[in-house]
Amino acid sequence: MRFFLTRQKNRFSQENRSSPMIWLDSRNVGRVGGTGVATYARGVQECLLALGFQTRFLWDHGPGRSEIPAGGTIRRIARFIKALVPIRRIAMAQDRRSTVTYPFVPDLYRIAHIHFKTCRYLLRLWGEAVPDIMFWTYPLAARVQNTVNVVVIHDLIPLTHPELTGIRPDVLQQLLLRLVTRMDVVVTVSETVRQQIVDRLDVPADKVINLYQLAGVSQHEREQLVDAPQVAPRDCFICIGRVEKRKNIERLVEAHARSGTGRPLVLVGPDGDDMPDFTARTPQQQIIRVPWCSRASLLRALADAHALLFPSLAEGFGLPIIEAMSLGIPVLTSRGGATEEVAGNAAILVDPHDVRDIARGIMFLDNMTAGTQAWDNLRRAGLQQVEKFSFSAQAKRLAGFYAYLCSRFPHLPLPL
User: Fold this and answer.
1) How far is residue 353 from each of residues 92, 312, 357, measured CA to CA in Å?
2) Helix axes 295-304, 319-326, angle to 10 degrees
């Protein structure tokens, strides 16, 4: 009876809504400092709002409040006991800063993880009001009942390159197999990853949709970077991302030394789980480490750089590639996989496993002068490539995606 009444209430609320409602998980947007997935989630929300959809984030702690800490022994035991229950109720809470309400399940994401680790099932969520679509921006071990569930898988790096991460591939594969079975649609951010999902997880091709992602530097960000604190010297080579084995830091530093360039190499990003050796290989080589800076300072460093060096060993997308191109900065990145797909013909492509090839690419860029034909061609191609990931392009892809969902799930309301 409860299930029947819930469905009736959901139908009533949908019939009286002005536009479709889409929820997104807050797992990454709620973290201090944010992540690449947080940028992705905010970009999706921004495009959905522009298309006329209503959006809410599903919170496990109040918006603007600190994330719930892991806690001591008593809290861990209480969390484990809660995780044994296969279903959790979604409450509607009110933001203390406004009159806006938001869906809320206390400590949801940790409990869902423990539930899957213990029981090997997704945590089920139910509520008297659910969205038309639950858009999970990250592979989380939860599912909302009585609605369309969409999950985003950004990459399969722990499966395709297990030596590059500290994530156990067997555990992740169990979760992903459960998700692609139980979720209604799987979304990803490149054709490279889409094909990997189809092949490695045995998912029907028509169930996996590549939406790419909103990428680049907005006009507002361009205005902010002008006055941002400077964290890197002008005309340097810059590499952006976590300083870890997957980013190919050691080969990059070696290639930078071999190139003979006098430009410093600036490594911007937090430490990864492993600690690659980024010490200078020669007395003349200059390596500058910037573990953290504001988004505005990062973009200023990128805008002031001679070129971005991004010879990563594995990526699902490669956001810095498009950010550099949008600022008119030349890019060196890896041949093959998602990096070549995202960069197109607008970057210097190198074999990420060949130090000599990376060094040749750095030398080519080092000798390239702004204003020359080669420089202008690379810059122009980059600006054209950026258009594929612009706001208008991403909004168009999301609109087409919703039309696809409506064809598969006829009960979904049509947007205004």
Assistant:
1) 51, 9, 8
2) 60
CA distance 184 to 175: 15
Question: 135 CB contacts (<8 Å, ≥6 apart)?
Answer: 22, 23, 24, 25, 44, 150, 152
CA pair distance 243, 269, nearest whole angstrom: 6
Overall average pLDDT of the 361-369 stretch: 96
Strands 87-89 and 54-58, bridge-based pairing: unpaired
* Interval 44-86: pLDDT, tens: 999 999 999 999 999 998 887 766 667 778 888 989 999 999 9
CA 291, 294, 299 angle in degrees (round to 5)?
95
Helix H segments across 242-390?
Answer: 249-259, 295-304, 319-326, 337-343, 355-366, 373-386
Start-to-end CA span in the chain (Å): 33
Q: At residue 291, what are phi and psi to the nearest 5 degrees?
A: -65, -30
- The pLDDT of residue 155: 97
In this structure, the chain runs to a length of 416
Q: What structural domains and CATH numbers belong to the chain?
A: 2-152+391-408 (no CATH), 219-389 (3.40.50.2000)
**Per-residue tokens: 293:** 């800076």
* Cβ-Cβ contacts under 8 Å for 52 (sequence gap 6 or more): 19, 415, 416
In one-letter notation, the amino acid at residue 195 is Q
Task: Report the distance separating Cα 335 and Cα 312, nearest Å.
Answer: 10
Residue 127 contacts residue 153 (beta carbons within 8 Å): no
pTM of this structure? 0.92
Distance, in Å, from the CA atom of 253 to the CA atom of 179, rounded to the nearest integer, reads 39
As beta bridge partners, residue 23 has: 56, 134
Contact call for residues 147 and 130 (beta carbons, < 8 A): yes
Residue indicated by tokens 């006829």: 410
